[in-house]
Design a protein that fits this description.
globular; TIM Barrel; 327 residues; five-stranded parallel beta sheet; 13 strands
Length: 327
């Protein structure tokens, strides 16, 4: 009997209190704030939603990674609190995330702000997004930036085993970026094996791969096999009725387990790694995406059984590097 195939769920953009995507489209892209039915995008996401997300993860045994943006929007940080909001809300959010998701998810920064880049010397925001800034940096400038993100999470009690790129951070200078991640992990955590999420592949044969190996460090790229299938729940869907949830879940895995993204990946010999964003799970307060995740988790358990095994990104990295010697 063959071993179960690793499967993982990656969550981008979580942060205490703030709705990061709204900030991006309003303050950076200068676009509309309207969502489904002309309803404005919420400025905040309540802590209670994190609790309901944890309920689904625990009930379905879902594993993967969960980003935490250390200095969301450049408005405070996850240690001292978010500007304009009671610091107790941030402390509560961090407590819930670490206590309830720790057994299931790897944590990671999605760099510092997920919006404007930061001048590390002054703490002031630069007139470039982190995405744009990163594309003309070297390992000498990227490593301290990533280390700052890791250090803030460490101060908050979070052991960040990898990193996630905000947007396509580091894409144009990936060899420098991977070396910088490895250096930052050695500096902050003394960690020699780590992982990062940058690539979204439209390829069902996708598996993690070793992207960097030097100075005793190994860094594994964990890529998804598709983009976020729930993206339209931000804009187009005004509720989480059963028919809609079932239809959206079919994109991941049909109720009989015979079709959908996860089935295509398994049939092609890949490792199913799929993605959602905090805002697509929240669905502007309707929580349509979260209901879909719950249904997908239920279908995976009911139809795939022992064929797959929920796995964190660090465990995927370990399996990918088997045979590479001491780590």
């Amino acid at each position: 009997m063959s071993s179960p195939v690793p499967i993982a769920f990656l969550v981008d953009d979580p942060t205490p209190v703030l709705h990061l995507y709204r900030h991006h489209i309003v303050d950076i892209s200068r676009k509309t704030t309207l969502a489904a039915g002309g309803v404005p995008l919420a400025e905040t996401i309540p802590n209670a939603f994190l609790g309901r997300f944890c309920d689904v993860v625990e009930a379905r045994g879902i594993k993967g990674k969960f980003s935490i943006v250390p200095e969301p929007q450049g408005r405070g940080d996850v240690v001292r609190g978010i500007e304009g909001h009671d610091p107790a809300l941030t402390r509560e959010w961090m407590r819930i995330a670490t206590a309830r998701l720790g057994p299931f998810m790897d944590f990671c920064p999605e760099m510092l702000t997920h919006s404007w880049a930061v001048d590390l010397a002054t703490g002031k925001l630069l007139p470039e997004t982190e995405h744009d800034w990163s594309q003309h940096q070297t390992r000498a400038t990227l490593a301290p930036y990533i280390a700052r993100a890791l250090a803030i999470l460490k101060e908050a009690g979070v052991d960040a085993t990898g990193v996630t790129s905000p947007w396509m951070f580091g894409e144009d200078v990936e060899p420098e970026y991977t070396a910088a991640i490895a250096a930052a992990q050695r500096l902050v955590h003394g960690r020699m094996l780590s992982w990062y999420f940058l690539h979204i592949k439209d390829d069902p044969m996708t598996k993690p791969w070793v992207a960097y190996r030097d100075e005793g460090s190994i860094l594994v790229s964990v890529a998804t096999c598709s983009d976020d299938l729930l993206w339209d729940t931000i804009w187009k869907h005004a509720g989480a009725d059963a028919a809609l949830v079932s239809s959206l879940a079919d994109g991941f895995l049909t109720a009989d387990g015979r079709a959908g993204l996860i089935r295509r990946v398994l049939d092609a010999g890949g490792w199913p790694v799929f993605l959602a964003h905090w805002q697509t799970l929240w669905s502007n307060g309707h929580e349509t995406g979260l209901a879909v995740l719950d249904e997908v988790g239920k279908r995976i358990h009911g139809t795939l059984g022992g064929a797959v095994e929920w796995t964190t990104c660090l465990e995927m990295a370990r399996r990918t590097t088997e045979g590479f010697g001491p780590r």
